[in-house]
Design a protein that fits this description.
alpha/beta; about 40% helix; Rossmann fold; 15 helices; about 325 residues
């Protein structure tokens, strides 16, 4: 049974926070298009292992506040939410886990406010040092206007299409054994656009559903309430967030466990290799036969790796 949330005031917003267990705090930050519910397998496992497992619905998601303006989702606000959460829980610092956008927040926090992070468990998204030019420009040139992050900058079509049928959205998005990294690399360039609008236009998708009907409905019902604009607005600040990193040291000394997935088609092996010189205290574990939704797709292995690392850090 997924726990009921506590409602906490942080950084001027109300945040829904789910907790289980006692002991050293482990704060888990979800990504897009997810919820604290994405950590449903980790909350009880960490609690049973002697940790205080904490997972918020982040700004714009679930039962937390959904601001209206794009600027409300700048990286400064997202980090301030996490700091406010720590303050509300009377924690000077904590160990964190982050997946997808949750990982991106952690990498940014590690550069800007390392004193509040005791250790990091980062799922799927490696550390990308600051590019010399706007990353949206790079993505547009490399992947085209259909690439989902680029498309989000140009219109609100995705907001509307996703919200028209959240059940179909999650049926299409959250799947396992869809395509291997090797198969993806062999596709022609025109089939690698990673257009979520094209995914939504399909009636069926490959692979297997990742979610049970009850889990799918949990996600779909949450996004029916909130819509998708808040979460998509995180992406619409990509250029701003890049600009704010000018002059910031890109090297990270915080103890870090990176859990990657061999078949995550968004992340290539060279991206993982490229972060190694910038993360001094780094351990890497790769999940075989696993795509992007790691903690939901391989919960037992992820739990084991997380807990082993957390215990070794104690």
């Amino acid at each position: 049974m997924f726990p009921e949330p506590s409602m906490i005031d942080t950084n001027g917003i109300r945040m829904a926070v789910y907790e289980q267990g006692d002991g050293p705090a482990v704060v888990m930050l979800h990504g897009f298009p997810e919820l604290a519910f994405s950590w449903r397998h980790q909350l009880p496992a960490l609690a049973m292992a002697g940790f205080r497992a904490i997972a918020p619905d982040q700004r714009g998601y679930g039962q937390s506040y959904v601001p209206a303006d794009v600027s409300d989702y700048r990286i400064e606000e997202l980090i301030a939410d996490v700091h406010g959460l720590l303050d509300a829980l009377e924690l000077e610092s904590a160990t964190f886990a982050g997946h997808d956008w949750g990982a991106l927040i952690l990498w940014q926090m590690a550069m800007r406010n390392p004193e509040r992070i005791d250790g990091m468990i980062v799922l799927n998204i490696p550390h990308y040092p600051r590019a010399p030019v706007d990353p949206i420009q790079i993505m547009r040139q490399r992947f085209g206007d259909d690439f989902y992050i680029v498309n989000f900058q140009d219109s609100d079509e995705a907001d509307r299409v996703f919200a028209d049928n959240p059940e179909h959205f999650f049926d299409m998005m959250m799947r396992r054994k869809h395509i291997s990294r090797q198969q993806f690399d062999q596709l022609p360039a025109e089939m690698k656009s990673l257009s979520l609008l094209k995914v939504m236009a399909r009636k069926e998708s490959g692979g297997e559903p990742l979610l049970s009907s009850e889990e799918r409905n949990y996600f779909a019902n949450a996004f029916t309430r909130t819509g998708f604009s808040g979460p998509i607005n995180w992406y619409r600040n990509w250029t701003h967030n890049w600009e704010t990193l000018e002059g910031v040291d890109q090297h990270i000394d915080i103890p870090t466990l990176f859990i990657g997935a061999v078949d995550d088609v968004i992340i290539a092996p060279e991206h993982i290799e490229a972060m190694k010189p910038f993360v001094a205290n780094l351990e890497i574990h790769m999940l075989e036969n696993c795509g992007h939704w790691s903690q939901q797709e391989k919960p037992d292995e992820v739990n084991r790796v997380m807990i082993d690392w957390l215990v070794s850090m104690s």
